[in-house]
Amino acid sequence: MKRFCGYLSLLLALSCGRMDIRTEPDPAVTPPAPTAKGTAYVFDDTALPRLTVQVSLDEWNRLLTLYDQDSKTREYIHCDAVFIKDNERTVVQDAGLRLRGQTSRRRPEGAAGQAHESGAGRWKHVHFGLHFRHFHKGDKDYDLRGVHRINLKYAKEDPTYIREKYCSDLLQRFGVWTAAAVSYCRLYIHVAGDPQPAYYGVYQMMEAVDDEYCENRPQFASDTGFLWKGVWGSNLRDRDDWRFGVGRKPDGGEYPYELKQGEEAFTAARAQLKDFIRNLNTLTGSRFEAWVKAHIDVDLLLRTYAVFVAVGHWDDYWNDMNNAYFYFDSRDPVDYRFYLIPYDMDNTLGTTIPCGAQTDALYQDPYRWGLDECVLMPKILSIAEFRQQYTAYLKALGAEDSPFSYPASMERIGPWQDLIRDHLANDTGEDQVLADRPASWSKHHEYRVTTDGSYNWFRLKSARLRAL
Hints:
With 468 residues, the chain is an alpha+beta fold. Helix 7 crosses helix 10 and helix 10 (384-398) crosses helix 12 (457-466). The protein is 29% helix and 17% strand. 43% of the residues are buried. It is globular, with a radius of gyration of 22 Å. The strands form 2 sheets. It has a 7-stranded mixed barrel with strand order 1-2-3-4-5-7-6. It has a 5-stranded mixed beta sheet with strand order 9-10-8-11-12. The two termini are 29 Å apart. It has 2 domains: 2-31 and 220-398, no CATH class; 50-212, no CATH class.
């Protein structure tokens, strides 16, 4: 009963969106976060729905041409989407389809300059984005069962097919309600005139981080604040004007901080983010501590980074100044609360390379996880109260009854792999086998996820966390 009451009290605190840091944390309190509103039907990890994207020949060839002209294109083409789950068929007409990815961008078919040949597609795994209302702004009649956007991600260099899904699930179980929903689908692309759809295989469906993501989380004090996407260079230290923007840079590159609300909000949003960066970098001592407690959900941030350390997420804000969203839950220039939203967590669980401050994510000091120039975490952990809380969360994840333990992890991973293993063969000929190994480019090929042995990631990392 005592443990249950602890879970209940934490959930109530989380639901208020303003949880104070505790100086004497209960490491056992790690409840699942509530499912984001409106996402449960689509993002159901017990089901493997069939998603068919139907596109005209002209529109598909236009997508190929857009890529040839600009491999980083964000332009959408017109399509229809058919979603079949439990024999229920949902059709969204005139949706938008585009290519996604940073370094992983590819042409979805054939070589440069080649148009589609009916019945003779040379398909390739790529990441897609589906925006059901892109051509019908604000019209919720075009949503897919309450979801207006999904990202479709293939298991690029993850032969276990579970790394992204596992990290999102563990974050949620550890009270990190900002983690986006992730589940699986069987993806088909049907170009009009082809005798049958091309089967692209098992894809991960991921909740898009945007305004509606914020609306689906009542824990935010406001869902109309400013949302920034942080890519390489977003260290929360430097304030040069060229770092902030909307859309892509004039030269086609990406801004380290990209505002997701559009040009009309940019001036106010940039001033607010600069205010945050200035205070984060210049305040010291008791003034910094008071400012942090008023402007950052520190408890949530410490939970997030404890999970990042456990799963070995090195391609992150702190170590690589990359792969994060930053949300401010108010548009007030100085009265706001900051949230770091997890993003792109497939290079984890033993897939590791020398990067930033790291050479091996298993052995990296969790208190020096990344670069000193990424000042957010080093300054927060310089405060004894916060460092104590962080240590407690790391130890909680390493505990034998933790959701991160090898037995508990396999209880979740096993059913996910059973769900998809008979559906991996696909028309691209790629990523067709489940295997327990890191990415081919990983500098540490020895780590294992599902194989129980001396190099099992969960057992090795849990032991290190318990020893802190």
